[in-house]
């Protein structure tokens, strides 16, 4: 069984339709005003409305206020929350929704400890550490830093593209993969051919 696939940072309905048609299991919407992929509630609604049934919608936040998360949840049919900042386990769990916790990986970061701390998360998303950034950088990290004994599912992110995702899937055996910049024509603008090649790469790595 291949890992689940999330295409993150969507801003256009057409990209949502393409992602779903090509086989993505989930799409990500960024609610972080410092990101070039940040979407308004209206733009997010248009993206969600373009999706067929059974494609999960993930809302991504970076150190949000409680009011901001509540605002998004009240306005949109969100399936999973994704937190990319320094949010506490208590904060992440307080919305009574499934959530993912992102960790920016570098030498010295103990993913086993993170998995234990956020043990009620649906998954731990391993991203590349880039100073001053909270994801979407296109940078990779050393996959050897990922231990095999995590207690919650691992979602691999960080610099994945059609060229390296098959190798990543074979080496890391993640439960899911998450891509944003690796399938873009420009920031927030997805490329259907790149998405197709990426999804094929995930499938190839699972064989």
TrEMBL record:
It comes from Crenobacter cavernae. Pathway: Amino-acid biosynthesis; L-tryptophan biosynthesis; L-tryptophan from chorismate: step 3/5. One of its GO terms (molecular function) is phosphoribosylanthranilate isomerase activity. CDD domains: PRAI (cd00405). This is N-(5'-phosphoribosyl)anthranilate isomerase. Its EC number is 5.3.1.24. It catalyses: N-(5-phospho-beta-D-ribosyl)anthranilate = 1-(2-carboxyphenylamino)-1-deoxy-D-ribulose 5-phosphate. Residues 5-200 form the N-(5'phosphoribosyl) anthranilate isomerase (PRAI) domain. Keywords: Amino-acid biosynthesis, Aromatic amino acid biosynthesis, Isomerase, Tryptophan biosynthesis. It holds the Pfam family PRAI. It comes from the Bacteria. Belongs to the TrpF family. NCBIfam families: PRK01222.1-4 (NF002298), PRK01222.1-6 (NF002299).
């Amino acid at each position: 069984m291949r890992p689940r696939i999330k295409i993150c940072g969507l801003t256009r309905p057409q990209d949502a339709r393409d992602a779903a048609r090509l086989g993505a299991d989930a799409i990500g919407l960024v609610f972080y005003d410092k990101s070039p992929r940040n979407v308004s509630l209206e733009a997010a609604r248009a993206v969600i409305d373009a999706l067929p049934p059974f494609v999960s919608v993930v809302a991504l936040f970076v150190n949000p206020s409680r009011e901001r998360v509540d605002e998004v949840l009240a306005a949109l049919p969100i399936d999973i929350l994704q937190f990319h900042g320094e949010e506490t386990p208590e904060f992440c769990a307080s919305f009574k929704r499934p959530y993912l916790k992102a960790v920016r990986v570098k030498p010295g970061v103990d993913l086993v400890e993170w998995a234990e701390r956020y043990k009620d998360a649906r998954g731990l998303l391993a991203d590349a550490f880039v100073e001053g950034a909270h994801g979407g950088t296109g940078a990779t990290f050393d996959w050897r830093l990922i231990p095999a004994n995590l207690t919650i599912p691992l979602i691999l992110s960080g610099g994945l593209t059609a060229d390296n995702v098959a190798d990543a899937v074979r080496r890391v055996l993640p439960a899911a993969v998450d891509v944003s910049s690796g399938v873009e024509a420009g920031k927030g603008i997805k490329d259907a051919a790149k998405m197709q090649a990426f999804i094929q790469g995930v499938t190839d790595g699972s064989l």
